[in-house]
Structures are given as C-alpha cells and as structure tokens.
Specification:
This protein is α+β, with helices and mostly antiparallel strands. The chain is built from 9 helices and 19 strands. About 35% of the residues are buried.
C-alpha cells in the first residue's frame, strides 16, 4: 500500500468552542474483549470504563465518538471537563482524517501508534498478519510512512502532517488570553521578573532577558498628554494609539503592571483645531501638520500584556520545536535552544488591510489576503513571522546536516500557532530552502500549505460515513 498523494505538508485547524454546549458525554461500564483495548493504556483500568455519547442529547457527539477505538474513548473519559473531552476527541479525529486522506482507507481500519520516542504516528500494518505480528500492533523500529503532530489549547485543535520521508514535524498552539487573569494577578503580586523566573528552566539566559526587558512588537495603549494651544491655554487629552517598539524602547525595562509611566513622544498634529494626534511621521495631504514634542503618560499594564504575549511566543516556538524532535520538555538541550530577535506576530486587529507585509515577516501572503487561510476563517488570521534566528548551544540552526523551518502565526486576537519541520539531507525542499542559520524566504516555496479550517460535520463525520459506505 502506498500513499495516494504526493509528499506535501498539511495544516488543519478545528474549532471546538461552539460544539455541544451541554454535556454530550456519559459513562457506561461494558464488557470489552481484552484485545480491543490494545495498545496498552497508560493508566490502570480496573473496570472496562468506556466513554460513549448520549445520543438523545447530541447525535453528532455520538457519531464522532463511534469512530474511535474503545481504548481511545476510555482515554477521553479520564478528562474531567467537557471542554477537555472535546479537545481530545477532536485531536483523534484530525489524526484519523489525515491518515484516511493519505491512504484512502476507512476510519475503522486505522490504528494509531507511537514511535520510539512515544510520539503519535501511523505505521502501515503488515499485508498478511501473523501471530507474532498482529495487525493491531506495530514495531517501533519501523519508519512511519506518515508523520503528524497535533496540539490543542483553549478550544482550538491544530494538526501538521506530511507524507514526505525523513521529515519530522511539530506543532503547538497557545492562547495568551486563556490564563491572562491568573498571569496578571501573579505579576501584580510578585512582579513580572519573578513570574518569568518560574519558567527559567525552559528558556536560555538570553531568552529570559529578552522576555523581561524588551518590547519587540507594537502595542495599543492609551496615551495621556498635554498640548499647548495657540492662545496659550493647555489642553489635556487621552487618545488610544499604536506605539511602535522603537517608540516604547525607553519603557522596555518596565516589569510592574498598574503604574503610570512617562514617555517623550513626537506627536504629529493636523492643525490647531485637531484634538486627535498621531505618533507617526506620515503627513496628511488634506491639512497642514506640525510635529510637537510632548511628555506623555502611558499605563504599564498594556506593556506587561505585550511582554506576556512575547513569553507565549517563545514558549509556543520551543514547544513546536521539541515536539518535532520527539523529546518534549525533557530534552536535555532545552535551555540551549534559543529563538533570537523574535517578534510576536501581530493579531488581525493590528494589521492594515491595505498594506502588504514584507516577505520576511509574513511569507506567502500579500495585500488584503494576508493570513486569511482557507475555509470560513477569512479575517481571523493575523501576521506570520519567520525572520528570527534559531540557535542551539550558541550555533545557528540549521547546520550542514539538517534544515529546520519554523513559523509562528497569529490567529484571532489571543492565539498563536507554531509549526516546525526538520528535513533530512535528501528531502526535496519544494523549490526553496534556507542556508545555514537563515530560514527560507517564504513558506510557500518551502512547501507549507495555508492552514485549512475544518468543519466537524462536513469535513470529518460526512467523510467517515462515506468511507464506511464505500462511496
């Protein structure tokens, strides 16, 4: 059996946030033959507890769960909250769908496995099962014919997969908003430096310093300033502005939220009667302008929130990279892995629809279509960034042996998704590829496809039904 599609890179996103607002699952205890519980579960199972859906409350959930193996439903049952059960279920379904699309085999014939590092994968079963090599097990010394990786966070599930040989893939998704309340409360109590230090074992000394004391991205912040009118009176105003990292550089060392900070700005005012300034240097063609130096006051909390986003950007990239390697957070070289000059991608609200980002910062996109992706999510996608350096042990990656491509993409206002691909020396790079230490110029030349947003009913359940019916 050979894959029906040529080697490619697939990236999917499935949103579970609006699925099944009421509890769709119930537990039952049934007698299950032991061999159907393979592979061995990672937790004791004193009774054959199998998760099923309540078809009276949600037929769709029942159909989705029926596609999984009994031991997979048992794993889902171990989650306490419905939102976590939905995420785990969606993760399984994306893996099933990717394998089905690759091999054109029905969902019922798919058996998920793990490689020698415990990373989920799929092995082709032997063509003729034998007692010593049953079709429900695979030898971990085999080379998986497809590689995929899944991540889920705050209701979203993402997958990257490939059929290319000698390729490793990893993906991670984070939500800077999900823990914002707890993060800010901890920072208000102990300070931002102490909050970052909790995770110092994960980051290099340089990364810790960058996270603490830099503001690499533009920040939306209310600016209070006093301007002198032509008649000599003073007017105080507060305007919401987008300040660049360069304008915020004097405040980059801020590590406390909830305080007021002074900042010298050059504001461009369009005439004496205008009360709405702009910190840019672009002149308005409709009225005369003048640049006025002001001492402004800005709150520190938006700056701390921007630093939190930078923290999660580093975390997301590191997770995707180590998941690609198969060693996870236990990798002994974790702190030696550095992402230098990283700028978190801008969310959709900060992207100008009429602008065209540079290829180095938003590869593969141009004009109004930037970051739109496929499916129903047009306008949800923010910026993509790849113009940062990757180092291990002080040396730039990729080196002369392998090539690594990493991308960080913004989704909605609070999500970021990192994808990482490591190519072997003999892998066709699809027309592109970076030299040592420099990522390739754009994602499409490397072979990344756009993220495709899937619909559970149309793209998974209907497909599974058709395959079982032999359509």
């Amino acid at each position: 059996m050979t894959p029906t599609n040529p080697p490619t890179y697939t990236r999917w996103l499935l949103d579970t946030r609006t699925l099944w607002q009421s509890e769709p699952f119930e537990q039952t205890v049934i007698s299950v033959p032991h061999h159907l519980l393979l592979p061995p579960l990672s937790f004791p199972l004193s009774r054959h507890e199998i998760l099923i859906a309540n078809p009276r409350s949600n037929p769709q959930a029942s159909r989705a769960l029926s596609l999984l193996k009994p031991h997979e439903r048992a794993i889902i049952h171990k989650h306490l909250f419905t939102r976590d059960k939905k995420l785990r279920l969606a993760s399984y379904l994306l893996k099933y769908l990717f394998i089905h699309r690759t091999y054109s085999i029905p969902f019922s014939a798919i058996v998920l496995s793990a490689d020698k590092n415990g990373k989920p994968c799929y092995y082709e079963p032997p063509s003729t099962p034998t007692p010593s090599s049953p079709s429900t097990t695979q030898t971990k010394t085999q080379t998986p014919r497809v590689q995929f990786n899944v991540s889920h966070q705050a209701g979203l599930v993402a997958l990257i997969g490939t059929t290319a040989p000698n390729v490793d893939v990893g993906i991670d998704i984070v939500s800077a908003d999900e823990r914002a309340g707890r993060d800010v409360a901890s920072i208000e109590k102990d300070g931002f430096e102490a909050w970052v230090d909790v995770y110092a074992e994960v980051f290099s000394a340089r990364e810790v310093c960058d996270i603490k004391f830099t503001l690499p991205s533009a920040v939306v912040v209310p600016v209070t300033f006093t301007r002198e009118e032509e008649d000599g009176t003073a007017t105080t105003a507060t305007e919401t502005m987008v300040l660049t990292s360069e304008q915020l550089r004097p405040l980059a060392a801020c590590v406390r939220s909830g305080v007021e900070l002074q900042l010298q700005l050059q504001l461009q005012l369009a005439g004496p009667s205008t009360s709405t300034p702009t910190p840019t240097t672009t002149s308005s063609s409709s009225s005369p302008t003048k640049t006025v130096p002001v001492t402004a006051t800005v709150p520190s909390t938006p700056l701390i929130l921007s630093k939190i986003r930078s923290f999660y950007a580093h975390w997301c990239l590191k997770e995707a990279y180590i998941k690609m390697s198969g060693e996870a957070l236990l990798a002994p070289w974790l702190r030696d892995l550095e992402f230098r000059d990283l700028r978190p991608p801008l969310p959709p609200s900060l992207l100008s629809p009429s602008s065209s980002p540079s290829p180095s910062s938003s590869p593969g996109f141009s004009g109004e279509d930037q970051g739109a992706g496929k499916g129903k999510g047009r306008g949800k996608w923010g910026e993509s960034v790849r113009d940062f350096e990757i180092c291990r042990g002080g040396r730039l990656v990729p080196n002369v042996e392998v090539e690594v491509e990493v991308e960080l993409k913004a989704y909605e206002e609070g999500y970021m998704i990192a994808t990482a691909v490591r190519l072997g020396r003999d892998v066709d790079r699809g027309g592109g590829g970076g030299s040592a230490g420099v990522q390739s110029e754009n994602a499409t030349s490397f072979g990344y496809g756009e993220f495709e947003e899937l619909d559970l009913e149309r793209d998974i359940l209907d497909v599974a039904k058709a395959t079982e019916a032999g359509v």
